[in-house]
Specification:
67% of the residues lie in helices and 2% in strands. By secondary structure, the chain is mostly helical. The C terminus is likely disordered. This is PQ loop repeat protein.
Length: 255
């Protein structure tokens, strides 16, 4: 299509760097030997280059004669593959309540800016190329979604992160100490922080054991035997959790 040189060079550079990263995963994640991974990466790069050269040589003639459907098909396929590659992180975000883990935001910002300025380069041409533009638009929108997800998670967990900072802990350390295993995937709220503060930093396991014991036992007022029912909520408020047991602050009630 005879785009400007930077637009032509950009995907080549990005593809090469992506192949290098893929080769590193073969070594550090899959345990391949360095030379084996390097050879596999080089062979794949050569294969990609050969496919690109063949497509350019075979499609340039028909494109100049007005036959554009092969190029359109390739552009649609590229957009679909890009979307498929960027959708899996959203499943990971859903598992973690929107928190972004394992993605470098500096890299994501640079990548987003690259797609954005490439899109602007297409817009600055005499005619906007919707084939390449669609590819960059998909990239820009899906990566913006990752940023938004992280910002929402930061806002929803601002109270718990503030409490963790006061205790000199990271968010993960604080959650490991204060959240039961069944609830660690759910974002914490201000109510959670207030509850923890009320119990002076006692762990969730200790608090839940206290509540479970209160629900199982029937309490009686020593001075008033007829008063057999004790409001559970008032009972919990009057309980002081210790390592040795549960002692009610109100006189005459021992659990």
């Amino acid at each position: 299509q005879n785009f400007n040189i930077p637009i032509q060079v950009q995907p080549q550079c990005f593809g090469l760097l992506t192949l290098v990263c893929w080769g590193q995963t073969l070594v550090y994640h899959d345990g391949w030997r360095t030379w084996t991974a390097s050879l596999a990466t080089a062979m794949l790069a050569i294969g990609f280059g050969a496919v690109e050269a063949i497509l350019v040589l075979t499609l340039r003639g028909p494109y100049n004669r007005g036959v554009s459907w092969p190029l359109t098909m390739i552009a649609i396929l590229a957009s679909v593959i890009l979307a498929v590659g960027l959708i899996p992180p959203y499943f990971e975000l859903a598992k973690r309540g929107g928190r972004v883990i394992g993605i470098n935001f500096i890299f994501l910002t640079v990548d987003w800016l690259g797609a954005f300025f490439s899109l602007m380069a297409l817009a600055a041409q005499n005619t906007f190329d919707y084939l390449g533009g669609t590819l960059y638009i998909v990239c820009v929108l899906l990566e913006i979604g990752i940023f938004i997800s992280q910002f929402i998670w930061l806002y929803r967990t601002r109270h718990i992160r503030r409490a963790a900072k006061k205790m000199g802990k990271t968010y993960d350390e604080y959650m490991a100490d204060t959240t039961p295993p069944s609830d660690r995937q759910r974002p914490d709220t201000a109510r959670t922080v207030e509850t923890l503060d009320a119990y002076n930093g006692e762990s969730y396991e200790t608090i839940y054991e206290t509540i479970a014991a209160l629900e199982k036992c029937k309490t009686k007022d020593v001075k008033s035997p007829k008063n057999e029912n004790l409001d559970l909520e008032m009972g919990i408020q009057g309980v002081k959790v210790t390592e040795k047991g549960m002692v009610a602050r109100s006189a005459g009630r021992v659990y």
